[in-house]
């Protein structure tokens, strides 16, 4: 049998394709390969088991909720019409006024937020800063577990069935919408109880605890009373959708920059500092995405709080539906009231998202 000269064949192949012989061209080719390949092997996400999404989401949600609970209490009170009059009076602004002074105070002054936290601490005690944390955790853990589980699972299903296994912004949109709808429907009663407890002032308490609140709502408002504010929650899914889309796009940019720097290498080949840097970038992206989404969609938060609060006026419910609530609030308090509590909301949700998504990513790495 005739022996084949492998070295000669390789040399002939290179000579027959002279453009490969240049180091400069080789570098350009590698660069083009990194930038232009639509679906390189390493760009495909490794499938994550559904239970991993479920566990990671719950742990991330719990960590974020505990750390940022005081801001949640302040935000809920500022959104309530009961507390609005008190804070506006303290700020020297009459009801219905939308002056520049009040706007700057309510939207921009972080100092005021911490002042309110101080007042709650002095007047009602340290535990009042964590009012509603129990039902909040009872809500957050399953809510985040359901959300991350549904999003991760449906994203894989939609991409496989509708887009030949490839991810795209519209796939993220569909998955986020499905996750938002499922989460809102399952957990609305828990959020209603949390809101009622946070607005239950010391000295005029209506509810002894979470169970007492649930019994009172069912007795006085019926089982459907537990689903007040659900329409606003569905509207609030827009925030989650926008956040997921922005987060996924930012992650893609981070990954592309990593590919430009290192090429298509396995995660295990990167050093520890690079892994930490990318994890911090992804966590920060979650916070930035949440910031943008919150600014755009915040008014629904105020409406949802008012609907869950269910205040009475002349023997009738003051807020009876989504559109009606928007009209009443804007008519009586001005459009600026649609952003009441925005500052503590951002102080809570932005770091909450950083902690939650960062923990989610970390737990997925550990469990996978």
UniProtKB/TrEMBL annotation:
Q: Which residues form a coiled coil?
A: none
Q: Which UniProt keywords apply?
A: Membrane, Mitochondrion, Mitochondrion inner membrane, Repeat, Transmembrane, Transmembrane helix, Transport
Which superkingdom heads the taxonomic lineage of this protein's source?
Eukaryota
In this record, what's one Pfam family? Mito_carr
Protein location? Mitochondrion inner membrane
**Stretch list, region Disordered:** 17-47
Which membrane topology describes this protein?
Answer: Multi-pass membrane protein
Against Gene3D superfamilies, the record matches this protein to:
Mitochondrial carrier domain
| One GO process term, biological-process aspect | pyrimidine nucleotide import into mitochondrion
Q: Please tell me one Gene Ontology term that the record gives under cellular component.
A: mitochondrial inner membrane
Chain ranges passing through the membrane = none
Q: Which GO terms describe its molecular function?
A: pyrimidine nucleotide transmembrane transporter activity
Catalytic function, reaction form:
5-methyl-UTP(out) + UTP(in) = 5-methyl-UTP(in) + UTP(out)
Matches recorded under SUPFAM superfamilies: Mitochondrial carrier
The residues bearing each Solcar repeat, given as ranges, are: 48-157, 167-253, 277-366
Q: Which family is this sequence assigned to?
A: Belongs to the mitochondrial carrier (TC 2.A.29) family.
* Name of protein: Mitochondrial carrier protein RIM2
Classification of source organism: Eukaryota, Fungi, Dikarya, Ascomycota, Saccharomycotina
